[in-house]
Specification:
Protein name: Quinone oxidoreductase
Pfam families: ADH_N, ADH_zinc_N
Distance between the termini: 11 Å
CATH architecture of the largest domain: Alpha-Beta Complex
Helix content: 25-40%
Keywords: NADP, Oxidoreductase
Bound molecules: NADPH dihydro-nicotinamide-adenine-dinucleotide phosphate
Order of helices and strands: EEEHEEEEHEHEHEHEHEHEHEHE
CATH class of the largest domain: Alpha Beta
CATH topology of the largest domain: Quinone Oxidoreductase, Chain A, domain 1
Structural class: alpha/beta
Number of strands: 15
CATH superfamily of the largest domain: Medium-chain alcohol dehydrogenases, catalytic domain
Number of helices: 9
Number of domains: 2
Radius of gyration: 20 Å
Strand content: 25-35%
């Protein structure tokens, strides 16, 4: 089978298209024939070694496909089931071995590409808006990178929950997409000081919550955008990691709350995984959550997908498709 492998950390060029044996599932595992693979920013952290794994390995944390074989003791799914998963590394290939407990059945109304597109970013948007900070009607919410994969989904959910949604994006084209997703105000943070804009747009009050996936370049001003006792959910570092923070800063800026959440801790067991994933998949099925699969690449072009994602030129979801 064809896979993408990396035997050293580095730039997109370390993603090599290689041929390996199809593996056999061990106890508790399933072999999934992959139909569509989601590309996520976390794949960049794996590739560069920011989140190191044992080399060589196949990156990729999300896919949809069909169960080809199951190992001993697997009860969650059976051969032939259409399934999707997230948060298990090794999806950039024609087949992947996945713990059966991580596989979620795909409803008939949802196609493979949509399933691969919504698992990781959809469940992230779900936990951020329902669990990390439970958005209430009338809350003022700031979402950075509003036209990105997570950004477009989180904006839709915040809008659905009745929030006044402010987003930041880098270009006018991205601003348009963000508005279509439900942003009330879009700030071009490459042209304007987003802190000043947030203060202006909220009559100096600030926002209840900031969802910050950009990190290094936005963190300090994100804190300044919060109302007293506001929440900063720092959930990524697309521009680089945030340096260490003195907790006293949270006090002086208004008794703020700071959390650094990650999806794994919001799908702690199968029950929680199925409940979050099924809600997202059902919203996709009914059209309540609109996916924008803006960029698809053949599996062999994984390095191009990474180049595009890191250069800030993409919007919405990127997928890799195994060649038929
Ligand atoms: P995106 O599609 O959002 O792509 C990243 C976006 O970040 C870019 O399009 C760009 O938007 C913005 N950005 C700002 N500065 C930079 C920079 N210097 N370099 C690159 N991009 C920059 O990616 P994803 O939706 O896959 O992920 C978004 C973030 O959420 C990532 O940081 C990821 O790690 C995090 N994440 C965290 C999870 C968690 O559970 N903690 C789960 C899933 C994702 P613009 O051009 O508009 O500035």
């Amino acid at each position: 089978m064809k896979v993408i492998q990396l035997s050293q950390y580095g730039g997109p060029e370390v993603l090599q298209y290689a041929e390996v044996e199809i593996p056999q599932p061990k106890a508790g595992e399933a072999l999934v024939r992959i139909k569509a693979i989601g590309v996520n920013f976390i794949d960049v952290y794996h590739r560069t070694g920011r989140y190191p794994g044992a080399l060589p390995f196949t990156p990729g944390s999300e896919a949809a496909g069909v169960v080809e074989a199951i190992g001993e003791g697997v009860t969650e799914i059976k051969k032939g089931d259409r399934v999707a998963y997230a948060m298990h590394v090794g999806s950039y290939g024609e087949y992947a071995l996945v713990p059966a407990a991580k596989l979620v059945p795909i409803p008939a109304q949802v196609d493979d590409k949509s399933a691969a597109a919504c698992m990781l970013q959809g469940m992230t948007a779900h936990y951020l808006s329902y669990s990390t900070y439970s958005i209430k009607k009338g809350n003022r919410v700031l979402i950075h990178a509003g036209a990105g994969g997570v950004g477009l989904l989180l904006t839709q959910l915040a809008h659905k929950l009745g929030a006044y949604v402010l987003t930041t994006v880098s270009t006018e084209e991205k601003a348009q997409l963000s508005r279509e997703a439900g942003a009330d105000e879009v700030i071009l943070y490459t042209q304007k000081d987003f802190e000043k804009e947030v203060k202006r747009l909220t009559d100096g009050k600030g926002v209840h919550v900031v969802y910050d996936s950009v990190g290094k370049t936005t963190f300090d001003k994100s804190l300044n955008c919060l109302q007293p006792r506001g929440y900063l959910a720092l959930f990524g570092a697309s521009s680089g990691p945030v340096p260490p923070v003195d907790p006293l800063v949270l006090s002086s800026k208004g008794s703020l709350y700071l959390t650094r959440p990650t999806l794994g801790h919001y799908v702690l067991n199968r029950e929680e995984l199925l409940s979050r994933a099924n809600e997202v998949l059902n919203w996709v099925a009914t059209g309540e959550l609109k996916l924008r699969v803006e960029h698809t690449y053949p599996l062999s072009q994984a390095s191009q997908a990474h180049t595009d994602l890191e250069s800030r030129s993409t919007t919405g979801k990127l997928l890799l498709l195994p060649e038929e």
